[in-house]
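Sample pair:
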Amino acid sequence: MHLRLIALFVIGVALISPAAETQDQKAPTLDELVAKNIEAKGGADALRALQSLKVTGKLLVNEGQLQLGYAETKKRPGEVRSEATLQGMTAVQAYDGKEGWRISPFQGRKDAEKMSADDAKSLIEDAEIDGPLVDWKAKESTLEYLGREDVDGTSAYKIKVVRKNGDVNFVYLDPDHFLEIRILTQRIRHGAQEEVETDVGDYEKIGGVFVPFSIEEGRKGDPDKQKTVIEKAEANVPVDDAIFHFPASASK
């Protein structure tokens, strides 16, 4: 969903066993949950009509003590570019549908550099405008409904998504609105498993589609998660594909 300025953390999370549905409440089917999620976001037609999304806001790190300017542009079928700016320096991460690249001035690297396949995994997910549940069959993912689980006091629906590349998302849906409130991602990166918890909320309708305006990401239970606060979002703005591609002048 947004630029990773800080290395994602490798953690071990003890997954809570899914809570049983109450006897007086019929458990929804997986297909019903996916359909409700699509409807909650604005419906299939609105999602298909949203071809690009540009957001701007701020990125808060170090327990909110450091604030960076933030911008992200997504374009179908799977392109994304994120920027974070502080004191005249701008960090960039981008994926053009085939490969990822970055500029990391805060780490002393001002030239664009290609990203490894492992490092680009998170960008591939970031590029999704719809999230992991929409069009899951076309993405060659597999889904499994795991029942209910507590998410900060909310008995959320839990769906396991295994992606084509083997990465796993545990998607938690709000029981009242059927929108994502948390996504726990497990993936193998550079030979080690990493688990990243992302909380999303403050949804607003942009171009007929509900989009989260608050994103917090980090290790489970860590109070120092980085937080993205969206202040403006624009739907279907003209986007030059060149912004997603590795700069031609940069060394490979």
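Confidence is low (pLDDT under 50) at residues 2-24.
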